[in-house]
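Q: Two folds, back to back.
A: First:
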Amino acid sequence: MTFSLESSSLLRLTAKAFGTLMSLEPAIAILTDLLVLGPIPNTASAIVVILVVIAGIGATYLLRPPTSGQPP
């Protein structure tokens, strides 16, 4: 079901907005885990999730797509 929701949102959002939302998935997962299951994530897990989110947002906004005349 989540794949179909992601696919339908990809058609309606810009690429940058979709990329930002996808990079927030680890943070949303850890918050859902905290609310549903209750264990508090350790410091290493929290740091890793923060770094993954920052890397995803950075890749979305800082990397430019290659021009059509140059190889990737």
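A: Second:
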Amino acid sequence: MKRLIIISLIFISSLSVAQKKCNLVGEFAKIYKENKVIYKGTPYLYETVKKLDSSNTCARFVNNNKQFIHYLLSHFSKRQERNKILLKINDTIKLQYKFIDLLKKDTIFVQLMNKLSNTINTQKKTDTITMDKLLDISVKYFYIFKIEEGNYAGKVCGGKNGISKTEKKRLPFAEAFAFSAIFDHYNSDKFNMYNEFVKGIKELYKLELGIEKDEKLLRAQGAMYMFMKNNQTLKDLLFYEYEKKKQFLPFILKK
């Protein structure tokens, strides 16, 4: 009888572990870290995503999607408001504690992460996005930001890009997916986005895009967007990454 009770307790314990679900908001302190550095007398803040222990219920998602969740933090949380408070704190322990406290009070960001947690746990999707729309977002990261001495200067960047000036309705998860897919394959063998970007810049030099510098820059940005929208390697990359990660993504990609 005693043996039967022990076996039952083990079964119940195993069942409760199996039923545990990923709660990203509850794991903020283990996922995100606030860092502070002093450069030439000026303090700067930057966040990093930590690796979770394999026993953590969110580990599989977080450890394989660091760029994705870092993008959401950088672009869809109250970063500027938060930093005004955090820059006044010098103690590293107090800094981290206050950072997490402010993050959990950020209702829009918490809603996003709760929606993401629900998808991870149930794999239920509430949104649909077309490949055309996903490409429309993706191309904005291939950004020509200035013309210097007749040369185009461009970068693939989560901070400096064309998203905020072109997208009226922001799609957080689609943006995070597109950027992380491009960034993770910036120099990869299978999908080298750096090479494709260079090809696009070379195509710009074949066009006379204007005499006035500002007008020429705008036309160059538009031409680059169109070049990348028709780029088969970018299309193949987005489809490949979606198929690999669709169980975690809160949207369905309409082919």
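Q: And?
A: Residues 22-122 form one domain.
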